[in-house]
């Protein structure tokens, strides 16, 4: 067996994606069917994870704070106090690390935070994380002596020291797990300067009590819009869900009504909808999604974001210009932790050399074909990374290319059932409890 080559990897963010990356690069190795003699293609990883917060968890690390923290950084988490997951733990867990048996299927954010802390402890990866460390700049540098012909300059600074000018180190690869739920997308609404009510993005929503006896309009009908509307229905006088999607199939409480998108805002708390009806609302909550943020990447990295599409990424993951850079979890409508698990193993296989990528032109062509296929199916440009109906096919493709185990079939079975229940019975689906069957390819509803 030849000499091991050390590959230094910089991981950005210690949320679920970053922890998963550390687990597969630095944690105890789970031998797969193609590992053979276990020499990992002659590669030994040396990873460091930079996390600007005080602890692991990323968006799952709940805080009552909104706006900026005591160090002047934007609050990262979008969790609200009473949030319950909209996926059951049985299809939410990393495949090799189940949630505790004594938890119900739908769990609170604090349970997920505890789970991620347990995951980090169990795999012994906390020692590779530098907390309170913010990435300032990532820049490629050609290096003919590198295994990949390229290295990365990564500049970080302490968030605790305003005088810190930063320090730069060099890595062979960069894996970004900095999350997609920290920079709110704020749509331009005509007349918003005249509106006298409160306008808040769901990123800054924490609890229902401030909305007691109010009329509230929610703009957006995805998971957060529906969940917060249900929560507010217990305290608010009236809640309107404003959106341009097809009519919601589920029944809602009597004081929750659907409306089309917003035409404009006016004085006297007036909100006019696209059907020319209007209401006087005390508050408007924007459930309008988030921006991708890679502002720490130098332009030479080649990563661009245009109208919610990140390019040039092969398989929604690998930078086609510099394939030693990967962006974890940018896709929507996914099961995040299993999704990270397959993506990380695929990227590890790329770095090891057991997956040989096509050339840049062919990867870009593959990416364009995927994009055009989505457009041909009627998906708008901004849904370029949406995985509805194709997530498990995508994950199976990556797993097969990397010769690692696929996500167990029961994940897909439960995911599909819950997706249907959420669409048709949003008021009750989180009361369901599941147990996996003995064969591991299905479930029992308890």
TrEMBL record:
Say yes or no: keyword Lipoprotein present. no
Cofactor(s), names only, from the UniProt record: FAD
> Source organism's superkingdom?
Eukaryota
Q: Does the keyword NADP apply?
A: yes
EC assignment: the record states: 1.-.-.-
Keywords assigned by UniProt, alphabetized:
FAD, Flavoprotein, Monooxygenase, NADP, Oxidoreductase
Entry's Gene Ontology molecular function annotations: flavin adenine dinucleotide binding; N,N-dimethylaniline monooxygenase activity; NADP binding
**Name of this protein:** Flavin-containing monooxygenase
Q: Give the organism the record lists.
A: Elysia marginata
């Amino acid at each position: 067996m030849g000499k091991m080559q050390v590959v230094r990897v910089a991981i950005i963010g210690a949320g679920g994606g970053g922890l998963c990356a550390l687990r597969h690069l630095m944690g105890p190795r789970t031998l797969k069917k193609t590992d053979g003699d276990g020499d990992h293609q002659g590669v030994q990883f040396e990873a460091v994870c930079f996390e600007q917060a005080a602890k692991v968890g990323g968006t799952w690390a709940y805080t009552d704070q909104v706006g900026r923290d005591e160090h002047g950084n934007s609050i990262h988490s979008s969790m609200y106090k009473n949030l319950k997951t909209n996926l059951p733990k049985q299809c939410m867990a990393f495949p090799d690390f189940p949630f505790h048996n004594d938890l119900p299927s739908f769990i609170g954010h604090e349970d997920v935070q505890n789970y991620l802390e347990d995951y980090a402890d169990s795999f012994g990866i906390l020692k590779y994380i530098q907390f309170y460390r913010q990435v300032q700049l990532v820049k490629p540098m050609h290096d003919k002596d590198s295994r990949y012909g390229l290295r990365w300059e990564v500049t970080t600074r302490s968030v605790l020291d305003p005088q810190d000018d930063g320090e730069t180190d060099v890595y062979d690869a960069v894996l970004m797990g900095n999350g997609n739920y920290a920079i709110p997308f704020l749509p331009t609404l005509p007349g918003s300067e005249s509106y006298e009510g409160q306008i808040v993005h769901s990123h800054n929503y924490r609890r229902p009590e401030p909305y007691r006896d109010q009329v509230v309009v929610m703009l957006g009908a995805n998971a957060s819009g529906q969940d917060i509307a249900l929560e507010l229905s217990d305290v608010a006088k009236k809640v309107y869900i404003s959106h341009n999607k097809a009519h919601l199939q589920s029944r809602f409480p009597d004081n929750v009504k659907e409306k089309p998108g917003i035409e404009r805002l006016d004085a006297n708390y007036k909100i006019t909808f696209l059907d020319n009806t209007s209401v006087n609302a005390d508050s408007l909550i924007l459930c309008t999604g988030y921006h991708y943020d890679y502002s720490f990447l130098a332009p030479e990295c080649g990563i661009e974001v245009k109208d919610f599409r990140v390019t040039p990424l092969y398989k929604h993951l690998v930078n086609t210009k510099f394939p030693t850079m990967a962006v974890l979890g940018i896709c929507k409508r996914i099961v995040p932790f299993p999704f990270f698990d397959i993506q990380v193993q695929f990227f590890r296989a790329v770095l090891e050399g057991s997956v040989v990528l096509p050339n840049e032109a062919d990867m870009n062509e593959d990416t364009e074909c995927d994009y055009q296929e989505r457009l041909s199916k009627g998906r708008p440009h901004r849904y370029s990374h949406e995985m509805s109906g194709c997530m498990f096919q995508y994950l199976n493709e990556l797993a097969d290319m990397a010769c690692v185990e696929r996500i167990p079939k029961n994940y897909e079975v439960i995911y599909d059932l819950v997706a249907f229940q959420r669409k048709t019975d949003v008021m009750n689906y989180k009361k369901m409890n599941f147990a996996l069957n003995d064969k591991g390819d299905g479930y029992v509803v308890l």
